[in-house]
Amino acid sequence: LKRDVAGDASESALLKCIELSCGSVRAMRDRNKKVAEIPFNSTNKYQLSVHETEDPNDNRYLLVMKGAPERILDRCSTIVIQGKEQPMDEELKEAFQSAYMELGGLGERVLGFCHLLLPEDQYPKGFAFDTDDVNFQTDNLCFVGLMSMIDPPRAAVPDAVGKCRSAGIKVIMVTGDHPITAKAIAKGVGIISEGNE
């Protein structure tokens, strides 16, 4: 992908994946105008945007959300499986948890995704979405999936950790990642060893 990308490594990876699998993101954005956005922050751990859709026969707004998988799942009451929306039950939540733990345990950064077509009777065309004092639905959403990305540590990190240890310096890792992901990364760079927490 030969283009400048604004955003962090996760945003860049997402953009590259979508461009390679679905085509031009710019064209997709042009066809589905964004009308509201709540940017990601470390408190909410999600990013949300509301869009007009390209379907001329459907005036509903599309709400899309991405973020920390557990935060996304908490806002969902349904899930898409093989193209069909169905109620989220305990068995599906356990399957989600298992997939999340497996991917996080590999040291991969995992994001969750959900969406909702907002009811036209409550959110008619021209609705004034307020993202400061949220005046639209942000729960009972539909979970659409997980995406994991490899965000490898810089090559020099294991050596730097080793040098710190040999100098008697205790190395501490501070991260916003899920604990299982953080543990896998810490093992990978030598901050903790097998059997240590």
Automatic annotation (TrEMBL):
Its EC number is 7.2.2.8. InterPro entries: ATPase_P-typ_cyto_dom_N, Cation_transp_ATPase_P-type, HAD-like_sf, HAD_sf. Pfam families: Cation_ATPase. It is a multi-pass membrane protein. It is found in: Endomembrane system. GO terms for molecular function: ATP binding; metal ion binding; P-type monovalent copper transporter activity; P-type sodium:potassium-exchanging transporter activity. Signal peptide: none annotated. One of its GO terms (cellular component) is plasma membrane. It is an enzyme of class 7 (translocase). GO terms for biological process: intracellular potassium ion homeostasis; intracellular sodium ion homeostasis; potassium ion import across plasma membrane; proton transmembrane transport; sodium ion export across plasma membrane. Keywords: ATP-binding, Copper, Copper transport, Ion transport, Membrane, Metal-binding, Nucleotide-binding, Translocase, Transmembrane, Transmembrane helix, Transport. Coiled coil: none annotated. PANTHER family: SODIUM/POTASSIUM-TRANSPORTING ATPASE SUBUNIT ALPHA (PTHR43294), SODIUM_POTASSIUM-TRANSPORTING ATPASE SUBUNIT ALPHA (PTHR43294:SF24). This is P-type Cu(+) transporter. It comes from Cyprinodon nevadensis amargosae.
